[in-house]
Amino acid sequence: MSATTHTSAATRAPTDPMRQRARIAGVLYLLTFVSIPTLAVYNAVRDHADFILGAGSDTGVLWGALSEVIVGIAGIGTAVVLFPVLKRQNESVALGLVAARLLETTLIFVSVVSLLTIVTLRDDVAGTSGADNASLTTTGHTLLAIYDRTFLLSQSLMPVFCDLLLGYLLYRSRLVPRILPMVAFVGAPLLLASDLAIFFGLYDRVAPIAGLAALPVAAFELSLGVWLIVKGFNSSSPLMARPATDVHIPSPRTGQPEQRAAGIQDDRRVNS
To answer: Whole-model pTM?
Structure first.
């Protein structure tokens, strides 16, 4: 029996760490879509002018806030998990992606804090003796406005930069089919134009045209997540053909990339 066990263990296929990394990144990208229902669950705050005084239910608001926290953490996770691979193409751009995701998550948390503050004032202050209902209502509207403007920067504007940086790295490295980053190149400018229109008051962020402008970016991130889970990184990518110690250096003579890994020069001396 021990011989059989040893044979089965020896013939078992080794785990591919790059495949695992791609699968984790894909799952994290899909997790960033859990906050989509927040447009509906936050209606309790928007539809009731006196929500902070006790109108409506705060259960949906709490669930929406939790989902946005998950989105923020998952967003950072996507950049961190992909960084060791993407830095082989361009470390500065890959680091910029991590920084952009971190800024996006910071802004998401700021917006969540504004909503949770509304709930706290509603539960702990409203209805108590000496509470100024007019001031509480004004404070609630102010905090909701902070959420709306922070949302515009966090979950609408920052994805423009994140997807442009990621699209560039994926397009150059061929880690996934090039049609995917091309969708990002089309969707990011559309989303940016929509953000500017919302910023200058041409229409509201919940307007149908705003949703349409965000569709290409959403399609890119959703399809990327599914692809990484199902297929992983393309084995034909130049980044997959060399070890992590390689450096991507343009040749001064031809302009084409050269691969220089530790130990190559020593091998040449030995062979000569």
So the answer is: 0.82
